[in-house]
Amino acid sequence: MPELPEVEVVRAGLAPAVTGAHIVGVDVRDERALTRHRGTGPDFEAALLGRLLAEPARRGKFLWIPLREDGDAGARSIVAHLGMSGQMLLRASGAAPERHERIRIDIRHPAHGDLAVVFADQRTFGSLAIDPLVPTPDGAAGGYGTALPLVPAQVAHIARDLLDPAVDDSVLIRALAGKRSAIKRVLLDQGVVSGIGNIYADEALWAARIHPETPAAALSTRAVRRLLAEVRAVLAKALAEGGTSFDAQYVNVNGQAGYFAHSLNAYGRTGQPCPRCGRPIMRVAFTNRSSHFCAHCQRIA
Length: 301
Known about the structure:
By secondary structure, this protein is an alpha+beta fold. Helix 1 (4-18) crosses helix 6, helix 3 (169-177) crosses helix 6 (221-240) and helix 5 (198-208) packs across helix 6. The strands form three sheets. Strands 2, 3, 4, 5, 9 and 10 form a six-stranded antiparallel β-sheet that branches. A hairpin with a 3-residue loop joins strand 7 (101-109) and strand 8. The longest helix is centred in the C-terminal third of the chain and has 20 residues, at 221-240. It is 23% helix and 26% strand.
């Protein structure tokens, strides 16, 4: 599943092409891509036609594009979740359909001309929706990439992520201190901190030398601060390298793969030597996933 770096790469790629563009055509080719939309395909098409798009924003793994309506920059938005294999692609106007194309939005930009924003999804777990924007409780910007203190209603329950300038580390530290669950499980809880999935949880825990099964409440404040710093460092490095691509399912808006897979220290390296101590990386079952860690460097508290 695309995690924060992959979704941020998509957001940043869309921003110059869609900000200030008008929607001149919408074609819903598969209504399974509207599972989070409260309405039909024709309703989705009619609601978007002629609208002006504002700058895309992101919180965790959710991406949205505010719609400017009657001079208001924040009544509704197109909200996207990529699911397991969703892609947001920029294509030339009139380009041939993509494999697994579900929705096409034709736009006209004052500087870039006519383009198509294509939502393609092989496994159909992702979706687009039109969703009202609601005020953020703290009055801060709704997410990364926007100054508007608004967030889509269906994203409002998602916690801020660690690249969000408005995230409060002290609040997060107190939240972790009250959690008896394993620290990896807490990192994956999008209601505590968003955007972190299996890959980046394993990588940050390896970097912080923390065993994934350590109870969150057992970590000292110093250890939690070290972990938060390593999460940020891992996310920033992955972002700089275009995200993690193991197959063709995750690509940026131009269809290019990320290359952070070459920088992984723990995830997916079962049996290979730990880059720090040389002992083999372990893999254990974790819910319906796996955890990858070094049993020597990451001893359970």
